[in-house]
């Protein structure tokens, strides 16, 4: 069977937001081999942050003593935590999204649920259930995301392991867990399970955790994590085997680490490699589908967005790229660029981290004349209220233009606090104006940013 469409969208993460009322007149195929909603909704941002929130409630109870409050966790009801996330929130949204696309409100849309791969120019082989279908499209949007990368030492070992795709649905909490990786996904899970009482053992090839961040942040984060969790840094896993307790890994330095569960979070592989893109003439840029500034691939009429093609693997970037491509599909005479200026990111760890713009090292490598201020939470009034002695905000600005070049927050509410700085960077408000031309509520936590800005030396 074969069918032609005006538009084919492969992947229902950010891709699913493209069809709207403005293209009801078009015939559209949506191909999704997994759950509707993609990574962020089902196995990424949303469930992880819901678990992290529960973990932070647990951590607040554990740390209540320093505020003169005696409190103790009686019981962690893991099935109820899982149910709050999936039964009550995530799964109904995923199911509802698919029902909507298959239902009477979108009669112009067909949904296919099998893996899509190219078999010729603008020609895709997919299917619905058992039925194989070849579809062709005038326009095609590839939004197929990424999947967990599993090192050969683990996949070849035959050992049982978990990834972000199944760890959040385990039936009960293990007593201990090896977390393999030192990036943001590994660290968020480490924080979450540690707070819920699991003995977490981090194994990471690099000496540094979150090593892509500003080095002052990654150094401080690594030191803090070493104090709170068992860490094995600077040595990779050489082999893994099932053991009485669960899994035992042997590191290249000979150390053996055992845990009831092994969670692998060692990065993400983009899914373009599974789509026979060469059959359609679509070029790659390393592991990414090559796109120009408007999201066009090397083949006219084929677009790509999100993790599969973007230099950023972040949901807000995938969404922003989707909005640009949605516009470009309707307005080919007025193309919008994929917005890649001042892209912020947050890591929902303990402590929380948020970042935007250049790191100090990057700014110095570019030869920029900069001023840098590190402001500690413990030196502003709200930080006193929080008894904080480790958190900070770091702002980097150009000494001459006074424009903010980068900001890096590590501490409570980092992802919220940084938003003011992102606004200033986007609207070109310089550091001095931002600090002085508005009120900062006293004694609220944003005084941290105010003081950091006032501390920049423009003399
Ligand atoms: C654990 C975790 C936590 C995260 N937390 C955050 C966060 O806090 N903030 C943030 O900004 N980002 C976060 N991310 C990243 C974010 O989830 C991704 O950047 C975002 O979901 C990418 O969206 P996308 O539309 O490009 O792809 P996806 O959402 O991955 O959608 C791709 C879809 O395509 C389908 N598909 C793939 N190949 C095919 C094929 N050949 N045929 C048919 N269907 C196919 C997949 O099943 C999937 O549903 C997190 C990621 C993970 C893994």
From TrEMBL:
**Does Nucleotide-binding count among this protein's keywords?**
yes
Domain of life (superkingdom): Bacteria
What are the UniProt keywords, alphabetically?
Disulfide bond, FAD, Flavoprotein, NAD, Nucleotide-binding, Oxidoreductase, Redox-active center
Q: How is the cofactor bound?
A: Binds 1 FAD per subunit.
Residues that coordinate or bind NAD(+): 181-188, 267
Q: In the Enzyme Commission scheme, what number(s) does this protein have?
A: 1.8.1.15
Q: Write the protein's name.
A: Mycothione reductase
| One biological process term in Gene Ontology | 2-oxoglutarate metabolic process
What are the disulphide bonds in this sequence? 40-45
């Amino acid at each position: 069977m074969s069918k032609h469409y005006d538009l084919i969208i492969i992947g229902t993460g950010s891709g699913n937001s493209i069809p709207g009322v403005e293209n009801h007149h078009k015939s559209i195929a949506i191909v999704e081999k997994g759950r509707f909603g993609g990574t962020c909704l089902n196995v990424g941002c949303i469930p992880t942050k819901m678990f992290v929130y529960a973990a932070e409630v647990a951590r607040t109870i554990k740390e209540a003593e320093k505020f003169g409050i005696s409190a103790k966790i009686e019981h962690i009801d893991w099935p109820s935590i899982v149910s709050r996330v999936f039964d009550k929130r995530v799964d109904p949204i995923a199911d509802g999204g698919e029902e909507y696309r298959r239902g009477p409100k979108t009669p112009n849309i067909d949904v296919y649920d099998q893996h899509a791969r190219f078999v010729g120019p603008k020609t895709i082989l997919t299917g619905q259930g058992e039925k194989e279908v070849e579809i062709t499209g005038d326009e095609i949007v590839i939004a197929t995301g990424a999947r967990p990368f599993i090192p050969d030492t683990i996949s070849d070992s035959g050992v049982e392991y978990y990834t972000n795709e199944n760890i959040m649905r385990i039936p009960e909490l293990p007593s201990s867990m090896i977390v393999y990786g030192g990036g943001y996904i590994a660290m968020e899970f480490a924080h979450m399970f540690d707070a819920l009482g699991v003995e977490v053992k981090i194994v990471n090839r690099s000496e540094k955790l979150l090593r892509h961040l500003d080095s002052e942040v990654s150094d401080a984060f690594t030191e803090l994590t070493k104090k709170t969790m068992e860490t094995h840094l600077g040595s990779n896993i050489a082999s893994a085997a099932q053991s009485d307790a669960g899994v035992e890994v042997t590191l290249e330095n000979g150390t053996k680490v055992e845990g009831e569960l092994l969670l692998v979070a060692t990065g993400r592989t983009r899914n373009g490699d599974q789509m026979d893109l060469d059959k359609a003439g679509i070029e790659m840029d390393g592991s990414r589908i090559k796109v120009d500034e408007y999201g066009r691939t090397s083949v006219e009429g084929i677009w790509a967005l999100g993790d599969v093609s973007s230099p950023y693997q972040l949901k807000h970037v995938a969404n922003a790229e989707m909005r640009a491509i949605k516009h470009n599909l309707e307005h080919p005479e007025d193309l919008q660029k994929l917005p890649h200026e001042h892209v912020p990111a947050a890591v929902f760890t303990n402590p929380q981290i948020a970042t935007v713009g250049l790191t100090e090292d990057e700014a110095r490598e570019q030869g920029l004349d900069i001023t840098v201020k590190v402001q500690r939470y413990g030196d502003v009034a709200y930080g006193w209220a929080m008894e904080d002695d480790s958190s900070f905000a770091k702002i980097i600005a150009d000494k001459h233009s006074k424009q903010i070049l980068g900001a890096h927050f590590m501490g409570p509410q980092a992802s919220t606090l940084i938003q003011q700085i992102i606004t200033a960077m986007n609207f070109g408000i310089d550091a001095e104006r931002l600090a002085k031309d508005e009120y900062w509520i006293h004694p609220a936590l944003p005084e941290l940013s105010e003081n950091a800005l006032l501390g920049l030396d423009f003399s």
